[in-house]
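Predict the 3D structure for this chain.
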Amino acid sequence: MKSTFLFTWLLLISCFICTAQKKNYIGVETGAYFGNANSNIESGMVSSGFGDRQTASFLGLFTIDTEYPRKRAGKTSYRVKYGHYLNKKTAIEAGFGLSYHGAVEGYDEKNFAQSNYLTLTSNIHTLYIAWVKTDSLGKAGFGIGPALSFYKLSADINQGTSRETTNYLLPGVMIKGFWNFLSYPSWFLGMGTELSVTAAAKIKAIKITTPTSESTFKSTKAGSFNGNISITAGFRF
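Done. Predicted structure below.
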């Protein structure tokens, strides 16, 4: 009898521990991003004269035309996050990761002088702290809070002749939403989306001077918002 009672008591305690809400969680996110840094810089390239067409001739047999500016993006977003539940439906969450990457290539045709190339690459990492509200099962929710973006702008002048790097700190706010289609007491898997709105980076003018030509990229503002749609996974403890 005593052994049966002890076994039943231990079983009840184990069930309570397994089903009780965990107070903390850690997760990782990865997905596709969007933002306005490339578009802002592209507009700056055009207004600064870096929107010309480059024509390459091969032995006079045929030519290839390349239109500038050219935009490209080649990285997915990623983030690590940590959260602490204040109660069953409220948590405080902090996260950090890559939220945007892109590059814009410009070309300024100078005809009988040396033409100039300029490539501006944007890397934005974002740190945030959010107040998160969820349903009672932790399957869906939304959050809002302050954000700080670390914007690194790299300038490549005349295809590697010289390089410059400038860093900006951009304060703002972040809004997020998520749905965990698999949500268990110890782990979760789902999808989410977020949008960060920050102050814009004021990119200074960039002057390119060669023995036979001169080009200037005018000062412009870029990177005032970015966001992503991602897959998220993590565990609770």
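The helical segments are 2-19, 37-47.
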